[in-house]
Design a protein that fits this description.
2 domains, about 350 residues, mainly alpha, single chain
């Protein structure tokens, strides 16, 4: 080992200076350690995802996924869901690359160079990454080897991360028991599309506010159905329905009992609209344009495609597609005949 006797000591020096060869060897060791950690994290994420899909917290007697993760592993729900999301995204990307003939089903360690943050930021966009990889692989003189493919994947991921991320549907593992549960579950998946599972509660509130949940009541409800869609946790949903988030004397001069009744009525109205929208989607699937959907609905209900009734069916159908009930209310307020 060589060292410069004239180099002044630096605060924090713990070892003697390394020569270039030793420095390169240490750097290679660190790189291999990082790769090993990422590989192990990938296996961990896959195992956590299997546990979530198997609902092991129910089997082991825990009330929620959150309670299971905290008691068994000492991690919070957000951390556990980040691992679930990572495993799901890795599977989607791997499957896409296999289908394109770029990667063997064994994987060949092609996806081991991606960090946890990278996986989070391409959630829901695995197909975009795979498409970029395929385009760049096609431009090569020959099929990429494992090392080249790994580099193509890393670059494609970086490019996709640099783009704006569109809102997408959230994960929805809970199993609804009845229509009310099914509706709350669906509402929760909409909220998850705006505020994915790995976000903290403060980040969720910010994301929901930006997505148009513009009142405390709307955000509280969105948080409640989101929790239900995540792992079947009914606590927040039951608290919202019981109006426990408002003072005992109620709000706007109404007692809590009145608020409870009002929320129940509002939920029933929205659920009815959603159920109608699902019916309309069976007649006019989401792939159809509004004009084509209007023709299909008008034919089914024997009415003029330009009629108010058909226009209303189109808006209800749109609500069942997007979950934006506020947009439906705004349309209704503008379009309903006076006195209707």
């Amino acid at each position: 080992m060589t060292k410069d006797p004239d180099r002044p000591p630096v605060e924090g020096d713990l070892v003697a200076a390394l020569d270039p060869g030793e420095a390169r060897a240490l750097t290679a060791e660190i790189r291999e350690a990082i790769k090993a950690v990422r590989t192990a994290t990938g296996r961990l994420a896959a195992a956590v995802r299997r546990a979530h899909e198997a609902r092991v917290w129910v089997v082991l007697g825990y009330p929620t996924w959150k309670a299971y993760a905290r008691a068994e592993f000492g991690i919070g729900r957000s951390h556990a869901y980040r691992l679930v999301d990572q495993a799901a995204t890795a599977e989607q990307l791997g499957n896409a690359l296999v289908e394109l003939g770029l990667m063997s089903p064994a994987g060949d360690d092609v996806l081991t160079d991606l960090s946890g943050r990278a996986w989070r930021e391409i959630q829901g966009r695995a197909q975009d990454v795979a498409a970029l990889v395929a385009d760049r692989a096609a431009a090569l003189d020959s099929a990429p080897d494992v090392e080249q493919l790994r580099g193509l994947v890393v670059q494609a991921v970086e490019d996709v991360r640099a783009e704006a991320v569109p809102a997408g549907p959230g994960r929805a593992p809970a199993t609804p028991a009845d229509d009310a549960d099914a509706f709350a579950h669906w509402e929760g998946t909409i909220a998850l599309g705006h505020a994915p599972a790995h976000l903290t509660d403060d980040e969720v509130l910010t994301a929901l506010d930006l997505a148009g949940y513009d009142t405390d009541t709307r955000r509280t409800y969105a948080m409640a159905v989101r929790a239900f869609a995540l792992d079947g946790d009914r606590e927040q949903l039951q608290a919202f329905r019981a109006a426990l988030d408002v003072p005992e004397q109620g709000e706007y001069g109404y007692g809590r009992e009145v608020v409870v009744v009002g929320r129940e009525l509002a939920e029933r109205l929205q659920m009815s609209c959603w159920q109608q929208g699902r019916l309309y989607l069976e007649i006019a699937p989401s792939r159809l344009s509004d004009r084509a959907a209007a023709r299909a609905l008008a034919a089914a209900f024997r009415e003029d495609p330009r009629s108010f009734e058909t226009a209303q069916r189109i808006e209800v159908r749109r609500y069942a597609m997007t979950g934006d009930y506020q947009a439906y209310e705004e349309w209704e307020n503008q379009a309903l005949p006076v006195g209707a």
